[in-house]
């Protein structure tokens, strides 16, 4: 460990890089073996979550009012000649878009929640609690009730466009407020809560002005439903996930280090403000896009990361994909439950996630207390 | 000490928050490799602020040079290669193990010299944990560790990147006597390897026992700087801390500070 005399600071680095291989005690070698096994187990858990999400996708496609069995669903999906025309229409135009959208929305909301919880150092942070959903609902209300929307959007996308605009704008507002404050992430969460109340008040104002029909439509939108899923929405949400996920994964180590405190992370050379900014940008894009297409869906962004954290810890190389996949599993099974809970009717999935999510969340908190 | 590296020069630095300078225009004699310097002083006089300024965590002006390399205003990855910083506390909420915490410290920047092979990173992390005597706790989650053990993990994270300058903010604050000695022994041995150690300490006896040099701050300004035996005097303790105290050598020949009470000014 003794250092060599050096000429300059950079030469010192070179000297240190060539240190002889590290000698560890037998116990130390054993610990590293256990650590490697731990990493393999985590990779397995991620793989298992992926398998579970795929199972959910398939199961989701076989459930529905028309009761298509698995074999027939599969035949229709791969375009086998024995599949009836009706089955093909049901699978390709109704079931597959809904099932895919469930997976994608789960991935987007839960990944967004995971990143928000890490960078804001707050286990209660999620797209829902930071006001993204409330802002989206207000944006949608402007379009549904007052007919206000962006001029260049096709008619099918006006509500989603407005919802996205407000959801994304609310996070930018949050960022701007955070920059003006010296307090850091704590105050960001408080700003988020203030935004929830502000947008809820504005939404109430719009509702007060609205007609009975428009209020009904707005109420249905706010409940969060996968029935609005279509291929354009699936394409856009997939693109957003595919574009943001690599950046999330690339900052996995920095986020892991950030869990040890911002000062420590900064002392490792991490630009913490920049890390927070881009992470919040990614999570707001993900959450705003998801919410714009399916409406308010609570608890997935909150519960998904919590379950992932319990399964896998906070090494973000595993925590981020595990959160995304946990969200997908939760959403997919919520989608299945939404079709099975009331015979003959499909409940809005937002209601299911809230009803199932709340007790689950309480259970998790109580369990955590005990440990 | 025969093998010496580069000295740290701190010149005319001011550190603080926007519109609220805490340390103003402070210059220190060069901090030599192999030395342990303790920053002492009453509460809220800018000890931690000075340390954070040296670590590049707060806005500052002035010059901090390691040899000829300017660290003030330098690129953060460059500074992070030379300077290790240990904050007072380690967060309790993170679901990470001690080993993961040390590995994370080595893995944040793929361009780091130490970020070489994966196995080399893991071995280096484990080596540091063993050195601090917490190898057996490597896979324990941080939440399950005691305050003292967490402090040692925090120290491991600060030294795992092999810094030339090690900045410690109250490294013994949460520790019992045994752990205090353990931590200060490690700090001493790091200094013997040529590291420049600067540590904020509240405990003057601990500072006198383990540091080569005391930097005494009061209201953001330098009051005294030098060998503990020269610096610690009843007069200084009265002026800076407002206490009536004796400074005596114990039977082992070590400096002891015995506080008798508040001095006339302090109790007035």
TrEMBL record, chain A:
Q: How does it sit in the membrane?
A: Multi-pass membrane protein
Q: Which residues cross the membrane?
A: 43-59, 90-112, 124-146, 152-174, 186-209, 229-253, 287-306, 318-338, 344-365
| GO cellular component: a single term | plasma membrane
Q: What's one GO BP annotation on this UniProt entry? A: siderophore-iron import into cell
Tell me which UniProt keywords the record has, alphabetically.
Cell membrane, Membrane, Transmembrane, Transmembrane helix, Transport
The entry lists its GO molecular-function terms as:
transmembrane transporter activity
Q: What is this protein called?
A: Iron complex transport system permease protein
Instruction: Give the organism the record lists.
Output: Enterovirga rhinocerotis
The organism's lineage is: Bacteria, Pseudomonadati, Pseudomonadota, Alphaproteobacteria, Hyphomicrobiales
UniProtKB/TrEMBL annotation, chain B:
Q: Which Pfam families match?
A: ABC_tran
| Molecular function in Gene Ontology | ATP binding; ATP hydrolysis activity
Q: Where is the ABC transporter domain?
A: 8-244
Q: Which InterPro entries match?
A: AAA+_ATPase (IPR003593), ABC_transporter-like_ATP-bd (IPR003439), ABC_transporter-like_CS (IPR017871), P-loop_NTPase (IPR027417)
Q: Sorted alphabetically, which keywords does the UniProt record give? A: ATP-binding, Nucleotide-binding
Q: Which PROSITE patterns does this chain map to?
A: ABC_TRANSPORTER_1, ABC_TRANSPORTER_2
Q: Which family does it belong to?
A: Belongs to the ABC transporter superfamily.
Report what the protein is called: Iron complex transport system ATP-binding protein
The source organism is Enterovirga rhinocerotis
